[in-house]
């Protein structure tokens, strides 16, 4: 079984490198108040995750950045990432089991949400 596991790990790493070459884009990661660190990652603004449990399906769509390789020292939720021309806050770091991470992101430069200031601007 160990041979199969190590073969899978090698194939997974090869696939990750191919995906990075084809789809990765530059990003800047800021740990706490430190300066930005350049890295590459595969960004998806509308990553869909579906969880099916006991006859109920729950779907969530969120922006994510997949990074195949190490993150800067001290990386943690709350850090800032700049990718695709926007600023994001890292909500969660999820190791993929193969040396990479999935970073769940929250947009920092999103317009304010809420009702219009002018009640006449409400849709009819």
TrEMBL record:
<dbReference type="GO" id="GO:0019068">
    <property type="term" value="P:virion assembly"/>
</dbReference>
<feature type="region of interest" description="Disordered">
    <location>
        <begin position="97"/>
        <end position="124"/>
    </location>
</feature>
<dbReference type="InterPro" id="IPR053734">
    <property type="entry name" value="Phage_Head-Tail_Connect_sf"/>
</dbReference>
<dbReference type="InterPro" id="IPR008018">
    <property type="entry name" value="Phage_tail_attach_FII"/>
</dbReference>
<dbReference type="Pfam" id="PF05354">
    <property type="entry name" value="Phage_attach"/>
</dbReference>
<protein>
    <recommendedName>
        <fullName>ATP-binding sugar transporter Gifsy-2</fullName>
    </recommendedName>
</protein>
<feature type="compositionally biased region" description="Basic and acidic residues">
    <location>
        <begin position="97"/>
        <end position="109"/>
    </location>
</feature>
């Amino acid at each position: 079984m160990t041979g199969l596991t190590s073969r899978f790990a090698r194939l997974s790493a090869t696939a990750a490198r191919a995906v990075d070459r084809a789809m990765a884009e530059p990003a800047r990661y800021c740990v706490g108040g430190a300066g930005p660190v350049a890295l590459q990652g595969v960004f998806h603004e509308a990553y869909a995750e579906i969880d099916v449990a006991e006859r109920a399906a729950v779907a969530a769509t969120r922006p994510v950045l997949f990074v195949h390789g190490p993150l800067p020292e001290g990386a943690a939720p709350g850090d800032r990432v700049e990718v695709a021309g926007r600023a994001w806050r890292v909500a969660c770091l999820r190791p993929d089991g193969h040396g990479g991470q999935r970073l769940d992101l929250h947009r920092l430069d999103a317009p304010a949400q809420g009702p219009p200031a002018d009640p006449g601007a409400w849709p009819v």
